[in-house]
């Protein structure tokens, strides 16, 4: 699943995000969602979230468990 729809993302979900500094390379960081930072229902580049580690980035993939 991709991370463009806010309704599919919630706190506690495991996701892959791209950090701001990694956008040119597309390097992904995996973590658990702590907060949703994007207020709009969808975003073409991914919903912005804060992970439990404190890192902030846009969701690229939702990890299915």
Automatic annotation (TrEMBL):
It holds the Pfam family DUF2196. It comes from the Bacteria. This is YwbE family protein. It comes from Paenibacillus crassostreae.
């Amino acid at each position: 699943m991709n991370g463009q729809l806010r309704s599919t993302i919630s706190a506690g979900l495991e996701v892959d995000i791209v950090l701001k500094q990694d956008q040119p390379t597309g390097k992904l960081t995996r973590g658990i969602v702590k907060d949703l930072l994007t207020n709009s229902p969808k975003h073409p580049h991914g919903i912005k979230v804060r992970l439990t580690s404190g890192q902030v980035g846009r969701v690229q993939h939702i990890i299915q468990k």
